[in-house]
Design brief:
With 318 residues, this protein is α+β, with helices and mostly antiparallel strands. The chain has helices at 7-16, 19-29, 32-35, 89-106, 141-147, 162-165, 171-180, 188-195, 199-207, 209-226, 231-243, 247-294, 299-306, 310-316; strands at 38-45, 59-68, 71-80, 114-121. It has two domains: 7-147, no CATH class; 157-245, no CATH class. It is built from 14 helices and four strands. It comes from Candidatus Regiella insecticola.
Length: 318
């Protein structure tokens, strides 16, 4: 007989790919309450092309899909044939579980599946020398258990009042802009709170003039447009900005104001050109339509050729 390449992997996968072997293995190793949730009739080994390819080559692994608690789920089985110096087994297994979940979503599912990880160990050291708890992968396990891997903390600006946000120091500037940029109202209604407490002066003189410019640019480009502020309102808003910052920052505001005015003039010219072109095209269409109608061309053909309405054609005949 020729020598078997990776004999442990071959026996592991060769054994557990058989459903009866897999069932017996689960029956004798899973907690009874967990086993009761698995619909063993739905156990199907997942083909390799549908299993995420781990970068880790120390493990051979098998994935079975099945119903767990009546919903799609997976049993992920990894085999470690030797005990390395890697104490991060629990973290690596967590990474694999998350990748399986992500792969499940990529297949079109809308919810995460239950994934049950099992690790078969037959290494040199006995018993298995490392923890199976994810907390023990942290520098401070007790602190991690207390604050890590908890529901994420949500900071919902949409339910906070401006007064509450304004207590958040310099961070209130970013939060105030994010809160109001969708609101269809004048920025003057909340700008005073944004500029209060000398925050802009502090940002310009102590944080960064570039950051000040970023904030100003966001206000003009995003908040001004989103709130449908007219030119007069933006002028008033910029005047409030000028009053709230030191003299060196006022130059930046005036530069932005000039750029905004120039941009408005360019938009006006473009709109005027477009209107002129549209008027010229309409005039040409009316002239062509009049000629076609005078030549007794079918009215329907004239409409199709010129794009004019019945009312516009009627006006040509009177």
């Amino acid at each position: 007989m020729s020598k078997i390449s990776k004999p442990h992997d071959c026996l592991f996968k060769g054994s557990l790919q058989h459903k009866q072997v897999m069932l017996d293995w689960l029956v004798h190793h899973l907690p009874k309450e967990t086993l009761a949730l698995i619909d063993t009739d739905t156990l199907v080994m997942v083909p390799n092309e549908y299993v995420p390819q781990w970068p880790d080559t120390l493990y051979s692994d098998i994935v079975y899909s099945c119903k767990i608690g009546g919903k799609p789920g997976y049993i992920y089985i990894a085999a470690e044939h030797q005990s390395s110096d890697d104490e991060m087994m629990a973290f690596r297994i967590l990474c694999y579980v998350v990748e399986l979940m992500n792969n499940h979503l990529k297949q079109g599912h809308k919810k995460l599946p239950i994934v049950l990880p099992l690790v078969l160990y037959h290494g040199e050291k006995s018993p298995y020398p490392y923890s199976t708890k994810i907390w023990d992968c942290f520098e401070n396990p007790e602190l991690a258990k207390a604050i890590a891997l908890k529901p994420f903390q949500l900071i919902d600006l949409t339910v906070m009042s401006d007064e509450e946000i304004n207590q958040h120091g310099l961070a209130s500037v970013m939060e105030m802009l994010f809160k109001h940029y969708r609101q269809r109202q004048s920025p003057l209604s909340w700008l005073e709170a944004l500029l209060s407490k000398g925050k802009m002066t502090t940002i310009y003189t102590q944080v960064s003039p570039d950051y000040f410019k970023d904030v100003l640019r966001y206000f003009i480009e995003i908040c001004g447009k989103a709130n449908e502020a007219g030119t007069d309102e933006l002028d008033k808003a910029l005047a409030l900005w000028v009053q709230s910052v030191p003299e060196q920052a006022q130059e930046d505001i005036m530069t932005f104001a000039q750029q905004l005015e120039k941009r408005g003039e360019e938009r006006g010219k473009q709109q005027g050109m477009q209107q002129g072109m549209q008027q010229g095209e309409k005039k040409a269409s009316l002239k062509i339509a009049k000629q076609l109608l005078d030549s007794h061309v079918d009215r329907t053909l004239v409409k199709v050729a010129t794009g004019l309405s019945d009312e516009e054609l009627d006006a040509l005949l009177h």
